Amino acid sequence: MKIIQIVGRSNTGKTTFIVDLIRELKAKGSVAAVKHLGHKRYAIEGGKDTTRFAEAGAGRSVGIDDEKAVTISSAPELTAVLTELCDAGTGYCIIEGFKTIPFPRVVIGDLETEGVVLKNPATPGEVIEHLEEFEEFQTMQGVIRELRRSCPTERAGCILSFNGLVREITGEERTDYMDFSPSIDPLIREIEAEAAETPGVIGARFHHRKGRLYAGEDITYFAILAEHRQEAFLAMSRAIDRLKSEAHNKH
């Protein structure tokens, strides 16, 4: 899921630009939009059943009619929201605001900030031309959905997934964290292509998280679509072994 962050001061045209961007992006895949409301809390209509469910302590209260579904969530955390959107198969997520969270961003107006991909683009098309420069946010389920979406499944008999973690204790050694830079991406693409060429494998999608990852956190999301489980197991085993020997064992 691509994260496209739009930031700027109030009344600079961010919302209008985002609306136009959504209209163009939806031709490429499913789109979600998240807005930081700050201290302007969203007003939930009082007395409604869904409101009462939420007030009673439901983590999520959902109302469904013949046109839409509306969810009230008790978890106002951006990462949790992004995880749910990615798990649901969202291809592109536009975030308005959250200036202190350092995603690569588009600036509307004269705001000075870091991590700027574009400043005051004339059209949404400019953003689409630079999609590769925006951050990729993934989950295990998101990788699996992307794999199913992009590969034929007529001959498929299984999807094998692997979720690697930062192991805290190995023998007598303790690992508090591991650091990974974007330089690992070319290796991941090589390993992914190698796995996809394994006889019987229909497709592979691999994602490696970057930055400082602490003990217990996810490192990798690997998914392989294959005709038979034996072929998937073989390709996955080779992929994991190569990643460990060429990257992880050097930490």
Q: What Rg do the Cα atoms give?
A: 21 Å
Q: Please summarize the sheet with the most strands.
A: 6 strands, mixed
Helix content: 25-40%
Under the CATH scheme, which class of the largest domain?
Alpha Beta
H/E series:
EHEHEEHEEEHEHEEEEHEEEH
List keywords for this structure.
single chain; 251 residues; alpha/beta; Rossmann fold; Aldehyde Oxidoreductase, domain 3; 2 domains; six-stranded mixed beta sheet; 7 helices; 15 strands; 30% helix
How would you characterize the overall build of this protein?
The radius of gyration is 21 Å and the shape is globular. The protein has two domains: about 1-135, P-loop containing nucleotide triphosphate hydrolases (Rossmann fold, 3-Layer(aba) Sandwich); about 140-250, Molybdopterin biosynthesis MoaE subunit (Aldehyde Oxidoreductase, domain 3), CATH 3.90.1170. The model has no long low-confidence stretch (mean pLDDT about 95). A hairpin with a 2-residue loop joins strand 10 and strand 11. The chain contains seven helices and 15 strands. Helices cover about 30% and strands about 30% of the residues.
Topology summary:
Elements: E1 2-7, H1 14-25, E2 31-35, H2 49-55, E3 60-64, E4 69-73, H3 78-87, E5 92-96, E6 105-107, E7 116-119, H4 124-129, E8 135-136, H5 140-150, E9 158-165, E10 169-170, E11 173-174, E12 177-180, H6 185-196, E13 201-208, E14 211-214, E15 218-226, H7 229-246
Parallel strand pairs: 1-5, 1-6, 2-5, 6-7
Antiparallel strand pairs: 1-8, 3-4, 9-15, 10-11, 12-14, 13-15
